Amino acid sequence: MTRMMRKRSLPTSSFDILEKAHDIAIKKSKIVEVVGMSSTSTIVVRLGLLLLCSWCLLPDGRSLVAAAAPVPPIRAVNLGGWLVTEGWILPSLFYGIPNNDTLDGTQLQFKSVVQNRYLAAEQGGGGAIVSDRTQASSWETFRLWRINETTFNFRVFGGQFWGVDGTGAVVATATTPGPSETFQIVRRNSDLSRVRIRAPNGLFLQAKTMQSLTADRGVATDWSDSDPSVFLTTTAGRMQGEYQICNGYGIPKATEVLTNHWNTYIKESDFRFITSTGLNAVRIPVGWWIASVPNPPPPFVGGSLKALDNAFDWAETYNLGVIVDLHAAPGSQNPFEHSATRDGTQNWGTTDANIAQTVQVIDFLASRYANRTGLLAIELLNEPWAPGATLSSLKKYYQDGYNAVRRHSSTAYVIMSNRLSIEDPTELLQFASNFSGSVLDVHYYNLFESKFTNFTVQQNIDFVKNNRSSDLDAVTRKNGFPLTFVGEWVAEWDLQGTSKEDYQAFAQAQQNVYGGATFGWAYWTLKNVNRAWSMEWMINNGYISVEG
Predict the structure, then answer these.
(1) Residues 296-327: pLDDT tens digits?
(2) What predicted TM-score, i.e. pTM, was given to this entire model?
(3) Bridge-based pairing state of the strands 191-198 and 231-237
(4) Is residue 474 within 8 Å of 427, Cβ to Cβ?
(5) Catalytic sites, residue numbers
(6) What are phi and psi of 126, to 5 degrees?
């Protein structure tokens, strides 16, 4: 049974001080400057933090004395694509993987050249694979589990895997794949979309009739349209996340590639840049395997923990607060590649053991960083997806995760992400109010929904000013907890041919509205090959002004 924790009533608790400091900072917005020890140093005393810390700043922004994390509301940026891989952010990470178009989670459809029909799992799985569909949809789409660059398991809509029964027919009945559910894709060199599929018995699959697929064709082929063992492939979807890059390269090579990425993608100079722009915090996505040192369960690789340690060193040097964000939980809390799912399957929170495993990750992170002055907050989970992540399991986890953080820190904020794909964004509001130092995270994008497709520039801006403002007000309490956090937003939209001035207006409108969040906001993300998604590019090219 879930037991909600009430605010602690310790005398002069850290959060009593922080809460008062937060109120003062919002109402007064004053900074007291005192000329310090020399002409090159200034002691900046932030009103409301006087009880907690003071520090000296060098001209380049570095601190002579360790500084406490900033008082909300913060202005932050996400370090996405660094410690949790997302291929769309930096596609070149995947270029060296052999056959990188058939990674785990790739969705393939097969069309028999003889029958001119798609292969399908009858009833979505649990029975025969047939070749009688004129169009391809979910039952005709198969997700790859990659064994090596040419060998795979094929998973059907219902979750079962292809196999060959005693009569040689291909069926989808196995719930766990093994050698008898392992197939090889053989491609034609001159046309990679034209394939044959070798079964575990060494023979090739063929669609001699529409009613069955059998593993009984020999090796010889002329790749013609009269060969029932030849199929045309269509790729319906791809994934490029942590699972895909690790399993695609294999542990030795993935360790080399990712270690180089961690050491070069985000560096100390980036933290210097961040603080120079007027931002005062970073949100750093991490995966659950970071707590499994030194060797995480396959296919994941170790080493990201050292990079996170470095981030704390740099953040404290440049007076930035750190939000450690559990972006990928064991079992995957959503079907997207950034949760490190293998094939889009979402299994997080389905058992008490899974929740306990996730709490252990939070306990590890809180224990390791509780005494770091840069620690601002720990986010218990990023973007749990409804209905797969149930409200009851999420509340149980948030209760236990909060307790894990409090065992090690009385001052770190604890961020609880709203579920995606829900009708009531206030569903966690009352629950979260029972926890001192709690923060409710919401993500706002004018993307990913059909209603934004035909919006004009002004309609996008008006939507932010009116709808987003109303949405944020609905989850914001003016006094007490939870504070509200727009943990992800971006100045990008479904528009072509827009001007720099359009982008500037859109970005400023969002800053104005999301500035009303009592914990603050964080842009997604610092770096990205897609320019509008890169705050670094947007700032350097005058599209966003944080101080404005």
Answers:
(1) 999 999 999 999 999 999 999 999 999 999 99
(2) 0.89
(3) antiparallel
(4) no
(5) 383, 488
(6) 100, 0
